[in-house]
Amino acid sequence: MTSKPELLEYDLGPAVRAFTTTRFGGCSEGNYASFNINGYCGDDPAHIAANRAALCSELGIQPDRLILPHQVHGKKVLAVGVALLELDEVARRERLEGIDAVMTDVPGVCVGVSTADCIPVLLYDEAHGAVAAVHAGWRGTVQRIVAEAVRAMSRNYGSEAASLRAVIAPGISMAAFEVGDEVYDAFAAAGFPMDAVARRMGRWHIDLNVANFLQLEAAGVPLDRIQVSSYCTYTECDRFFSARRLGIQSGRLYTGILLRPNNNKNR
């Protein structure tokens, strides 16, 4: 039986709600236990639907206002506007295919991404009433998807990086993220400062938090406007889903952000 989902919440101001789901407060079972809303990882559709309904109830939104793309570790960013919201379920699913970052300026719409060790990043532009959620696994990080999302917000909403607030939400820590030489080489080839983002501990380890923090800094987001979670999904897999610990056939966290529907002061 579904109960109230446990959310890890971030304070970005009164006009917005930003959060990451945990494993608690749902009805899914096994490696999906208990709160999973991702329909692409093999969970029971009935459990997913019940968990999504519980989250929407907690957020005070209708189910069709909860946005979750099908991510592919790329760098495509999709603006969610009224036109997309008016699509039927099949057409909407097609538009959300192959998308790794979603953004909106529509109040009452929760945009979010799904992770289980990858890094979720949230962006908020108070001045223009716009928000974004970014899925930054190592491949997306190498492609600088966070920087791409900042540029997309500028193009679509007039956002200025200096006015953004950001959250780097729970993902795998450097200590737990052991990688092969090919991953190290990919970061080096992409021009990342390897002394800052990598460390040899037997094998190479990559710090995805730092790699995405540096992208935000380079884009112009003030350092005091960037929150960085200290949680590691791998070492704390009792609370957070971790694909490295639980396997690919397991649940996913949902990191979302929405402009509160009753606060239109910026619109």
Q: Quickly count the helices.
A: 9
* C-alpha Rg (nearest Å): 17 Å
Largest sheet: 6 strands, mixed
Strand order of the largest sheet: 4-5-8-7-9-13
Q: Please tell me what the overall shape is.
A: globular
What's the average pLDDT?
96
* Helical percentage: 25-40%
List low-pLDDT spans. Answer: none
Count of distinct strands: 14
- How does the helix and strand content classify structurally? alpha+beta
Distance between the termini: 39 Å
What does the model show?
The structure is a single chain. The protein has helices at residues 45-59, 82-85, 89-95, 138-142, 145-157, 181-189, 194-197, 208-219, 243-246, and strands at 7-10, 16-21, 66-67, 77-80, 101-104, 110-115, 119-125, 130-136, 164-168, 178-179, 198-201, 203-206, 226-228, 253-259. With 267 residues, it is α+β, with helices and mostly antiparallel strands. The protein has a 6-stranded mixed beta sheet with strand order 4-5-8-7-9-13. Helix 5 packs parallel to helix 8. The longest helix has 15 residues, at 45-59.
